[in-house]
Write a structure and sequence with these properties.
Layout (H helix, E strand, L loop, with lengths): L1 H41 L4 H6 L3 E2 L6 E2 L2 H32 L2 H13 L5 H19 L8 H25 L3 H9 L4 H12 L1 H16 L3 H7 L11 H4 L6 H10 L7 H31 L5
Antiparallel strand pairs: 1-2
């Protein structure tokens, strides 16, 4: 009997180990493909031209492969989404963890997380069909495709990430810390801002960075809402927010759906963009990990 149980345990452990190795192989495979194809691209286009060029026209003569317009568009949408999602997410987390009753929380939190399950193409259509016409009544100069609508819809998309992770971090703060604050005469808002939030700061900051990473990698919603106009937009210029832009992911979709040859430089530029995007998200996730480890509070 014991031998049979040990055999089953070994089989289960082996299966789990194979699953873990599979994820590693897939990750390494993606990275290897990105590097291999990007090397081919950079053998024809210099790194300086790619990272400092201000024109992106890989399929239109004269060909130009400056990625700065795409990076600017990506950063613009990401910043706009963060401005919406971070306050809404942290306030939602505070309400769910500190004010909502257990029954209310059990209803609201699953409803909030449903937002994460809606297909991104639906968000993009919603932005184009409803958000943009509404915003146009407030901003007459708003174009049909614009950065504002894309930022709003991506912000809505990442609210569940920020709210869910922040709420888990806040609920992880021991009740004794709250009671100590009340014992000193502090009211609930003061306890939340002075004790609870600082104690859960590592998890909250991690949720912010993960939400921003999600916004950087968003594809279909920004492709539909923001358009496909690669231009070097100024994030500090309000007029640029009302015009069409193109993000890195939207450019990858455009190239992938075009009729360019699989061996052309234009097609290889898709992998160069992907490698750049991978490096950006990897950097953010690494920062998130170190912030979480550096400021994590362990309660016993």
């Amino acid at each position: 009997m014991k031998t049979a149980l040990r055999v089953k345990e070994r089989i289960a452990v082996t299966f789990l180990a194979l699953c873990a190795l599979l994820t590693l192989f897939v990750t390494f495979g993606i990275v290897i493909v990105l590097f291999a194809e990007s090397i081919t691209f950079f053998s024809h286009v210099s790194l300086v031209e790619f990272f400092t060029g201000t024109r992106w026209t890989p399929t239109i003569r004269p060909y130009s492969y400056g990625v700065l317009p795409l990076v600017a568009g990506t950063i613009m949408v990401t910043v706009g989404a963060a401005v919406i999602a971070i306050p809404a997410g942290i306030l939602s987390a505070i309400y769910l963890s500190e004010y909502a009753g257990e029954r209310t929380r059990n209803i609201l939190k699953p409803m909030l997380e449903i937002l994460a399950g809606i297909p991104t193409v639906v968000y993009g259509f919603f932005a184009f069909a409803y958000i943009t016409p509404y915003l146009k009544t407030l901003l007459p100069d708003l174009q049909a495709y614009n950065a504002v609508s894309a930022s709003v819809v991506v912000g809505i998309m990442i609210i569940p990430i920020v709210a869910s992770i922040s709420e888990d971090a806040i609920r992880g703060v021991p009740k004794s810390l709250r009671e100590a604050g009340y014992a000193l005469g502090a009211r609930k808002p003061k306890v939340i801002l002075s004790i609870v939030i600082p104690s859960a700061l590592s998890g909250i900051v991690a949720s912010f960075i993960l939400g921003i990473s999600r916004a950087i990698g968003e594809t279909m919603a920004v492709t539909i809402a923001a358009g496909r106009t690669p231009r070097l937009a100024n994030i500090l210029n309000p007029a640029d927010w009302m015009k069409s832009i193109e993000t890195m992911t939207a450019a990858m979709v455009e190239i992938g759906m075009s009729d360019v040859s699989g061996q052309s430089i234009a097609y290889k530029s898709l992998f160069a963009i992907g490698l750049t995007l991978f490096a950006m998200t990897l950097a953010l996730n690494t920062v998130s990990y170190f912030v979480k480890m550096r400021y994590r509070e362990v309660y016993r």
